[in-house]
């Protein structure tokens, strides 16, 4: 697993273009920091991909547990970085404003570690159940597992509506599962267990005990904030927006909230952006030798 040597990182340029279209001042601080960390590690990786990717063999058998921290923030190529961080930008704006920055940071850290642990458990179980040691060597890298967990949260807080998955309308509550299958139909080399781990972690938070455990361990962290002045609604593209009933914004909260995502999504929903990026990535892989 090696990052391709490229003259122009098209995906990185496109990602930076989207960030500046939204406006750095309009991106909540934890979301912006997460984007910055991932971009930084892409440009200046702490370790080569083979030394930062996550597998049962390297973590459990070789006791290289630092990979749990490194793997979410390293990406295989610029397109991998692009569609992960474009998704993070959209999810972060929605969720951080709903949960508050401190709790959202807590969620990001917890999900980053826990998705790695669940991924290792899934791969270990597959290796044992199918008697196939190759699953122990499957090495995953990237932020997409965390993003699947965040998508479960987003759909939990904003129920109803439909997502567009490969041109088919899918109820939001099933969108994660449909995207799990769709991504591996479009890009079979993606980590199915890594994405599934993210969904399971998200469900542990929304339906299981994870949220309560986090609240007990939070100490001085504030609990998730719900602003009564916000009402979520959905358009036919399947992504959520919200309208503010306070005529001058939230009391004590003066930051402007971008109301129109079309400026940086070209009118596409998140799922449509993901599909386009995946297809572009596959085309690019066919044109450039690895």
UniProtKB/TrEMBL annotation:
InterPro entries in the cross-refs: Peptidase_S54_rhomboid_dom (IPR022764), Rhomboid-like_sf (IPR035952)
UniProt superkingdom: Eukaryota
Keywords tagged on the record: Membrane, Transmembrane, Transmembrane helix
Ranges annotated as spanning the membrane: 103-127, 177-206
Keyword ATP-binding part of the UniProt annotation: no
Subcellular location: Membrane
Topological type in the membrane: Multi-pass membrane protein
Pfam families assigned: Rhomboid
Boundaries of every Peptidase S54 rhomboid domain copy: 63-207
Name of this chain's protein: Peptidase S54 rhomboid domain-containing protein
Native species: Felis catus (Cat)
GN (gene name): RHBDD1
């Amino acid at each position: 697993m090696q990052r391709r040597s490229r003259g122009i990182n098209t995906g990185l340029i496109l990602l930076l273009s989207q960030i500046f279209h939204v406006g750095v001042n309009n991106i909540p601080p934890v979301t912006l920091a997460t984007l910055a960390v991932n971009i930084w590690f892409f440009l200046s990786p702490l370790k080569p991909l083979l030394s930062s990717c996550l597998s049962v063999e390297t973590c459990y058998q070789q006791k290289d547990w630092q990979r749990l921290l490194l793997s979410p923030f390293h990406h295989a190529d610029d397109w991998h970085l692009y569609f992960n961080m474009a998704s993070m930008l959209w999810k972060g704006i929605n969720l951080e404003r709903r949960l508050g920055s401190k709790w959202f940071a807590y969620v990001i850290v917890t999900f980053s570690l826990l998705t790695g642990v669940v991924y290792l458990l899934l791969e270990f179980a597959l290796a044992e159940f199918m008697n196939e040691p190759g699953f122990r060597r499957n090495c995953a890298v990237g932020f997409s597992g965390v993003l699947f967990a965040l998508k479960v949260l987003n759909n939990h807080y904003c129920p109803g509506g439909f997502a567009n998955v490969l041109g088919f309308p899918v109820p939001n509550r099933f969108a994660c599962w449909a995207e799990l299958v769709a991504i591996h139909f479009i890009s079979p080399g993606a980590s199915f267990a890594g994405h599934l781990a993210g969904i399971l972690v998200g469900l542990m938070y929304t339906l299981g005990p994870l949220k309560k455990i986090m609240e007990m361990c939070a100490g001085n962290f504030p609990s998730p904030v719900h602003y009564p002045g916000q009402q979520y609604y959905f358009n036919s593209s399947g992504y959520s927006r919200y309208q503010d009933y306070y005529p001058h914004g939230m009391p004590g909260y003066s930051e402007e909230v971008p109301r129109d995502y079309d400026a940086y999504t070209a009118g596409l929903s998140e799922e449509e952006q993901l599909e386009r990026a995946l297809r572009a990535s596959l085309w690019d892989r066919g044109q450039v030798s690895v």
